[in-house]
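DATA SHEET
Item: assembly model
Revision: 1
Owner: S.N.
Input lines:
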Amino acid sequence: MRFEITARDKDTKARIGKIYTDHGIIETPCFMPVGSQGSVKTLSPKDLNECDVQIVLGNTYYLYLKPGAEIIKKGGGIHKFIGWKKPILTDSGGYQVFSLADLNKIEENGVTFQSHFDGSYHFFTPEKIIDIQRKLGPDIIMPLDYPVGYPSEYSTAKVANDISMKWAKISLDYFKKSSSFYDYRQTLFGICQGGIYKDLRKLGLEKMIQMEFDGYAIGGLSVGEPKQILYDLTEFSSEILPVEKPRYLMGIGKPEDIVKSIKRGIDMFDCVIPTRNGRNGTLYTSKGKVVIKNAIYKDDFKPLDSDCDCYTCKNFSRAYLRHLFNAGEILALRLFSLHNINFFISLTKRIRSAVINNTFKDWTREFYNSYFESGEEKNG
Amino acid sequence: MRFEITARDKDTKARIGKIYTDHGIIETPCFMPVGSQGSVKTLSPKDLNECDVQIVLGNTYYLYLKPGAEIIKKGGGIHKFIGWKKPILTDSGGYQVFSLADLNKIEENGVTFQSHFDGSYHFFTPEKIIDIQRKLGPDIIMPLDYPVGYPSEYSTAKVANDISMKWAKISLDYFKKSSSFYDYRQTLFGICQGGIYKDLRKLGLEKMIQMEFDGYAIGGLSVGEPKQILYDLTEFSSEILPVEKPRYLMGIGKPEDIVKSIKRGIDMFDCVIPTRNGRNGTLYTSKGKVVIKNAIYKDDFKPLDSDCDCYTCKNFSRAYLRHLFNAGEILALRLFSLHNINFFISLTKRIRSAVINNTFKDWTREFYNSYFESGEEKNG
């Protein structure tokens, strides 16, 4: 993997880049749709291609439990298995083990947990997480980490940070000794933790930088902390991280968070918001959020977003979309997920153009003016 | 609407035809996917076009309750509302009123029923059903009818048949006095009832034929009766119906039922089987049914049906499809519905070719040999 910065914004820390992988180039800043179980919920690879999605996420925790790494390896690796030819990143599952699993217990070299599917017991070590991802075959591998929720005591955040750093080192050493099962290369990113404590964050960042990963993820944010803390820690982390490596803000976020984080130097994002909210009938448009079940849309025959060129907006009215949703039709969930993914992908595309054309500051103002009717949150 | 017969099979009653509507030509025999609520479950109009679907069904009962005929009229009619430019047929909702509604009570001029959605009371008359369908705007309208289940006493079937005939006459007279709200024509079919009793069927058919509808539906079958009764009554009805009008066997059926009914002179079919069974993980292939959750498919990396050219079969393995289904992914339901609809559409296409090429008899034998491993049900 190679990362190249091709343009920088004149007013902010925003930067435009390219990540070269053996499955193609990812233009950054980029948004990565989440397909934890090997499917971006409701959408086909063809849909994702039509939205110009560049890279999708898988999740080690999920794919290890179902269908299992051996099945995916036997099927020729994750790209072939899920029918997606462009780059794939798999998250380590650390977040899931510590938030989703029915039980989790830190032991000396790893963590024991119970599957949230069937209660079965499993043991993850940093090495095992690398082994699984070698078998899965994503382009970008994430190491086992230990994120904490919000709020967390300093002592809790410190322990988790220490363990995350220790596991990162074990992961990197083990990764270097292992090799790809496939005819393409894989790369390993580091994940920085530290909760909301700047000294812990700084320590984590510096340790990770010393280890020399190919890219750096800022983990453990967007777990319930106030927005200002998210923005501050993003800025704080971004300034410490090396300029020449991609920066990935994990689990972020809302459209406005993405804009604000790109301004602070972030290159990569992932979030379940477009698909999860799509399935709940909350739709993102250039004029702000639309809650489609609202009665005002019952005879509104305009497109969902007249500025949008997705299949949903080009072919159906708000009245029909509302009807499908209220009638419990699965097609609604699909059309909504498609639109939302297209909105997030288009958002990063428009930001890339604005930065390249030196109009990012103006673009941001216009975006906020249109997106937030109230004019709130325009700054930051 | 105009119907033209372009070829006949030399060995059976099978015939090839064209139904001309203002939304295009329907080649018969045809299979019509069911989209009761204005959506063929999980599928987009683009998907249906890719499967070469020629006509879809809507349902008056469902669309009257949600979103309501006025909304659809305000939205420019059902084609525009649901984004489907080819022909549409709407069923009258008679079947739903008598099978799905929480309560139904025949009164002198119609039927009172309670919505299965919210328990609200409604009153349908033959005239109201025409009015609703004039507003909805399908190409083919079906009149209010009164089907009975299986088994039903002779006296019950007789009463329902008498009411169906009476309502058919009222519907036709009222239809002739009304006119289309749209810039295209609508046509009305008659529905023949009579339960499993041949004398009642004969009476119903003769009365309907006297009234001179543009097409004739055989209703009230596939409601639990033995297969031989279905085939016998289909043949019996088909022989009485006029040669020059399209014959529609309502709610049928399984692939083998479609083959057997085409042989008996049927031109049109609709059934929820491909989508409903798709959502249950039962898939139709040239080699018979596949129950995808079965463990034998867990590391089966072959396509679902190597004879099929649908998106599902061209892009994914059985192992991945099984994984998606077992992991509860909505994409599974979509890919399965797409494949099953493609299978049913392709089945009627292949039959049309076989009849045209005078190979229907051989084709049928080969189809059964491949579809039924056991060799059972080869004849009939």
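QC remark: Residues 280-360 of chain A form one domain.
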